[in-house]
Design a protein that fits this description.
The chain has one domain: Beta Barrel (Sortase, Chain: A), CATH 2.40.260.10. The protein is built from three helices and eight strands; from the N terminus they run H-H-E-E-E-E-E-E-H-E-E. The protein is globular and about 45 Å long.
Length: about 200
């Protein structure tokens, strides 16, 4: 009986250690590529960005994409030390680039999310399933819900994404969604491509 109890306790301890290692490894991998979205913005764009003066109640609070079963909290983040857009510190939230445009304002708002960790499934793991015409919703802190529709999807090499279009296009009211895709490249500490889903506000 004592042997079975000892074995049971040992198994529990091993399970806890494995779970802890799994979580830490996932977080460390996301940190290696600065939360997985090194495409985001370069230092020049970050330096030129002007935070919106709109009230905080207009900031994005929740992102929902019915087709791929996404309902996610929105973190408000800026840039990393190297000038890249910060991405969420977990795999279930998304992050809004707070130095840019607020979703619903004229210009290009940008939201990023992880595809997958080593063991953890990311919020944007099915982002590649979106097609032109699919709906994306952003709920603001004031309760207002904005409706966007996908107008284009594109995949770019991690270092050749059209940053100006993604972050600074101002001829409409856009929301651009970004995640990693492709293969892991150890030499750059990042996935080698980025998926961008371009969406546009649907007029009421």
């Amino acid at each position: 009986m004592k042997n079975k109890t000892t074995q049971g306790i040992t198994l529990i301890i091993v399970a806890v250690l494995v779970a802890t290692f799994t979580i830490r490894r996932d977080l460390s991998w996301s940190n290696i590529e600065e939360s997985g979205l090194a495409v985001a913005t370069n230092t020049a764009l970050a330096a030129g960005a002007v935070p919106s003066l709109a009230s905080a109640i207009e900031y994005p609070d929740e992102l929902s994409i019915p087709k791929i079963n996404v309902v996610s909290n929105v973190q408000h983040l800026g840039v990393t030390k190297s000038g890249n857009m910060q991405a969420p510190d977990n795999f279930s939230d998304v992050s809004w680039y707070k130095l840019g445009v607020i979703p619903g304002e004229k210009g290009s708002a940008v939201i990023a999310g992880h595809k997958n960790g080593v063991y953890v499934r990311g919020v944007f793991r099915r982002l590649n399933e979106l097609k032109v015409g699919d709906s994306v919703y952003v709920a603001r802190a004031n309760g207002e819900k904005l409706h966007f529709k996908v107008v284009e999807t594109a995949v770019y090499p991690y270092d050749k994404a059209p940053l100006e279009r993604i972050f600074t296009a101002s001829d409409g009211t856009y929301l651009n969604l970004i995640t990693c895709t492709g293969n892991w490249n150890e030499s750059i500490g990042s996935s080698d491509h980025r998926l961008v889903v371009y969406t546009e506000l649907v007029a009421n």
